[in-house]
Design a protein that fits this description.
Blueprint (H helix, E strand, L loop, with lengths): L2 E3 L6 E4 L7 H7 L3 E3 H16 L14 H18 L10
Length: about 90
């Protein structure tokens, strides 16, 4: 995903790559601005969707053991937590 920083007071970004298969939606999304936290959430949801794409299909049993799924989800959540900004990040101790 290509992200280009825009000028402005808040940290906002423009997503320059497609986020889904719907081409009409892609053209709308590429012209929208997202905060760093929104991008982190989009990435988390995207990672989960890619990992569990088969949910809702017939026979959607998870082929991996639970511990392996936990490691994968933990990795996604860790990436999310490292990507977000919190008000406390900007407060002096």
């Amino acid at each position: 995903m290509t992200i280009s920083k825009l000028t402005g007071q808040a940290d906002t970004y423009t997503i320059g790559s497609p986020l889904c298969a719907n081409n009409s939606l892609n053209s709308i999304l590429t012209h929208m601005d997202y905060t760093k936290n929104e991008i982190a959430l989009i990435n988390l949801i995207s990672n989960l969707n890619k990992e569990f794409y088969y949910f809702g299909e017939e026979g959607d049993l998870i082929p991996s053991p639970r511990w392996e799924i936990r490691e994968t989800v933990d990795k996604f959540v860790s990436q999310f937590m490292q990507s977000i900004e919190s008000e406390r990040d900007f407060q002096d101790d």
